[in-house]
Amino acid sequence: MRRAAFMIPAVLGAAVLLAALQATTPPYAKLTGPIITAGRQSDTVSSDSFSVKVNRVLKAKNVAYAQFGRAVDLKSSGVWVVVSAELQAFQKTMPVRAATLIGASGRMYRQSRRAGDAPNILAAKIVQPGLPTTGLFVFELPEDEIRNMRLVLSEQYDPQLKDEISVSLEPDDAAPQARLEIRKDGV
Question: What pTM value is reported for the model?
Fold first, then answer.
């Protein structure tokens, strides 16, 4: 009888302890998610493997560039957001293929494939250690998303246990330009 009186509270206590452990254990995706470094546009934001310095953020209704000697003019029903940045790798050669712009509502926008052939696009470049690489990220967003934006960069989309840099872009209430010319040397 004494043994049963001792066993019932012990089993109940163990069950409560296991339930508490299960409820407080972070999900697998959070344990193996990205290693996030955050900063502001005015700063050089550095992680362990690469850094980014956002130079300028421009907005326009149309973007234009030359491709193989032919003029390309892309219009948007929203707004083109062109981010000029400098990247630097620290330890190894790496691409920075995953660039996402998070708009005012929290929706995520990947780089525009429509402007993927524009000159100086960073997604097409490989970043070498010790050699700063400058270029552009081009996004297409609805006009109501262009306030309080955040640029998120990593080597690949949805990185696991890899560096991801988040840069808060400075608010700019200026109206988008009518046309933005993208040249081989930038904007």
Answer: 0.84
